[in-house]
Amino acid sequence: xxxxxxxxxxxxxxxAVRFGGVAALAGVxxxxxxxxxxxxxxxxxxxxxxxxNAITGxxxxxxxxxxxxxxxxxxxxxxxxxxxxxxxxxxxxxVFPSLSVTDNVMIGLxxxxxxxxxxxxxxxxxxxxxxxxxxxxxxxxxxxxxxxxRRGEVASELPYGEQRLVELAVALAARPRLLLLDEPGAGMTxxxxxxxxxxxxxxxxxxxxxxxxxxxxxxxxxxxxxxxVMNHGRVIAExxxxxxxxxxxxxxxxxxxxxxxx
Length: 262
Ligand SMILES: Nc1ncnc2c1ncn2[C@@H]1O[C@H](COP(=O)(O)OP(=O)(O)O)[C@@H](O)[C@H]1O
Ligand SMILES: [Mg+2]
Hints:
Blueprint: E1 10-19, E2 22-32, E3 37-41, H1 48-55, E4 63-68, E5 71-72, H2 78-83, E6 86-88, H3 101-111, H4 117-123, H5 128-145, H6 160-173, E7 178-182, H7 190-205, E8 209-213, H8 217-223, E9 226-231, E10 234-239, H9 241-245, H10 248-255
Parallel strand pairs: 3-8, 3-9, 6-7, 7-8
Antiparallel strand pairs: 1-2, 1-4, 4-5, 9-10
Helix pairs in contact: 3-5, 3-6, 5-6
Bound molecules: adenosine-5'-diphosphate and magnesium ion (MG).
Adenosine-5'-diphosphate (ADP) binds at residues 19, 22, 24, 42, 44-50.
């Protein structure tokens, strides 16, 4: 189907967020087209994480409109937004450290349409049949992200890069239709970044739309369909990777803040 015939996955219009005197977002607009990998880049403090927080309901914008497949999200709580298939990971890893890799993913599977973490932890041993089905699903997800060999290990004992993959597996367990990844490559080795790049492509190819914040330019430029550049709470450029790399405002934003971004 031609792009124009399909609803936008995400439409962000004139989004503003203030923290006291700081305009973290000063009127941000961008679109995310279905089936794409769209990346948001920009120097530290540009407002990338704030935009993610507003889209996923973790903070309420002072102004603006966010629509998911044509339906307004503004004002919905994070759980209501997640229930629509918009799932995120955080800039810092957020796995349950003392649980096994499989149990982390099982919690993700249980949380899909279920009550809370406590219910999950207390109730899950009673439903053996359902458990074995979920364990099978968890195995499939762990194979998909390349952690099949880590199933029974305690999450906190994995290398950092693999802990981030556990977090991604938990996010996938929620069956996202729009997946927001905040710096998935942070703290990863070059080899891990290559693996996570290929994983993000495979996620997109399974028809999950991906919105990515990432500092690693090699990763961004190699996997993105569209790149959105932010600086000082505004979008300063948007386009295909090649066009963005040649864009004078983008070069200036990065050179002007040399060493400011990690
Ligand atoms: N909870 C907060 N309270 C106050 N200021 C914040 C808060 N979160 C972010 N900011 C400020 O908003 C701006 C954008 O931050 P952020 O969205 O984290 O940027 P990025 O993810 O692009 O590095 C920065 O100036 C930051 O200091
Ligand atoms: Mg950030």
